[in-house]
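Before the break, one more example. Copy the sequence into your notebook; we will annotate it together after we see the structure.
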Amino acid sequence: MNKSLQHIALIPDGNRRWAKKRGLPSIVGHEKGSSSFEQILEKTLELKIPYLTFWGLSLDNVLKRSKTEINYIYKIIESQFQKMILDSRIYENKVKVTVLGRYQDYFPEKTKKIIAEIIKKTKNHDHYHLTFLLAYNGTDEMVDCLRKIKEKKQNITEKTIKDNLWTKDLPAVDLIIRTGSEDDPHLSAGFMMWDSAYAQLYFTKTFFPDFKKKEFEKCVLDYFERQRRKGG
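Here is what the structure looks like once it is written out:
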């Protein structure tokens, strides 16, 4: 893979709409979405893209969705992380798993324990970087960043902002893919607002449960086509 694409951020939208369209409970859409994530991870490794950031759950979702739905999402997340602990690809490819957001404040203890386990097991990996944003809003991240700068009595510069972000160890985002939003292309909650300042955006019509390897690769190829047009 061309080294000009280092970091993809994925916003997996459309799980509930996918389920509603089929007359199914929203939780079924979330469950189907988890299988799509596994395909995207596989394709990311195949294409040798070093950084993948996945917005698994927004803080707004945690605070505003029904308790029943959120508790089910917690179980799906728990199951997904348990699978990663046992996934040989994580270890063979030296994938470092990082989790950012307010999940420590809201997630069940059992879920947090499983998340902590995969973080510990992969902390020394350095070939690929898989970051999950859980109970995350970009606006929340930026407010926290400015609070830290104020507490440290630092001057506000580009460097001090980056150094105090939750995403301080991640490079700038090259490409943001948002599924299920081609008819309503938008970002939400200040998503990675600092790191995505120069990112290319790609919006798909496909809801996330149907977003598989082939379409993910199509997004990547479109990114390189844009780069060629800019360079030519």
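The CA atoms of residues 56 and 134 lie 5 Å apart. The chain has a mean pLDDT of 95. Try to locate both features in your own notes.
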